[in-house]
Amino acid sequence: MILEVDIGNTRTKWRIKDREKVLCRGVQATESIISDFKIERKFEDGLTTAAISSVINTQIRDRFISKLRARYKIQSKIAVVSERVGLVECGYRRVSELGVDRWLAILAGFHRGAGPTVVIDAGSALTVDFVDDSGKHRGGYIAPGISTMRDSLLKSTEGISSYATAIGDPRVPGLDTGEAVSKGCFLSAACLIKYLTKDQAPNLLLTGGDAQLLLQYFTEAPVYVEDLVLEGLSVNGVQFETLST
Length: 245
Prior knowledge:
The chain is of the alpha/beta class and 245 residues long. It has helices at 41-44, 58-72, 100-113, 146-156, 177-197, 211-215, 228-232; strands at 2-7, 11-18, 21-29, 49-54, 75-80, 84-85, 88-89, 117-122, 125-131, 137-144, 203-207, 223-224, 239-243. Strand 11 (203-207), helix 6 (211-215) and strand 12 (223-224) form a beta-alpha-beta unit.
């Protein structure tokens, strides 16, 4: 059995697989993975390896790896971005600058559709990446995610002390500052996605913590994939660094 882990800036998702079968999964705040990461005892003995995607600083990542090794006696391998995996070619001028989570989502997305693909990851950052039918990554866009925009307003703007947690119909103007902030940030993300993906490939995939929130805004909704980055860890040919910290 293998433990697959996607460590994001704010959330960490994981699942245990036996070959292609997912046995269990979980999600928690990234800040808690050192102190409060637990696997059900019935799955512990069969674990052999942890495959990890991580965008956090290496010090915290390596502490997590040390915990896995001490607690579950498993070796970890860290996914890295490469120039090519199969038909998929990284489009960045400097491969090392592409986030590994974006790379894995691109790989998984292309392998799902095997054609022109647009991958949208709506998390702390909103990313939109384009892959043509040959597998060439044509680049992408990065913008603040919905929660990042809202939090930035709270921190940097006097007179805004809170925002509404429920957005309601985003096309209806907010009747107080909190509603106005939430609706404005939501529409900033949703309209950017609509603008960038207009007349784009039919293989349009949406993942990330805000994905389900955004789906309500699309009449022809993208395909929601809960574990796209985790799927990318299983793509044949993905390169890893093996760590045993």
